[in-house]
Batch of 2 targets.
Target 1
Amino acid sequence: MAGMSICHMCKHWRPGISHPDGKQTCAAYLMGIPQPIWKGTQSHFKQVQGDGGIVFEPRPEITPEQVEEFMLAQEAMVL
């Protein structure tokens, strides 16, 4: 999971539709996902300024358990 962002698990992420400057984009952040959200240092499970009310929602094939497992792994990497 190293190098993976939780954004990869979100139905709003736009793989292959990146910003001209190489930034990752999604339905909430058309001009580029903020680095704290992309890197996982800021949660996007609740509304964040500038997201237009669009928050993290797992893709249909992603289970709540997979999201929880990812979050636990991310926390362990920080410790």
Target 2
Amino acid sequence: MILVTSTRLRIFDHLSSDFIDAMDVLLKRRAQLIIDCIGLPKRGRLLDLGGGPGRYAMEFKKNCPQLEVFIFDLSLDCT
């Protein structure tokens, strides 16, 4: 068992926030590369299997507002 003190928890929260921000920037760049490589239809439906928090799906939707985007993930991280 690991005991986490409030000081360690605050440090972890700060590092976690920085990590999430960095991953968000990286995923936005990757999403744009995917869009550039394969293209996306202007209309239709897109299913993001294992979409996690939905970062890719959000970027695809921003790029193609008429696209219906669905995320399927077993985690509780979807927003």
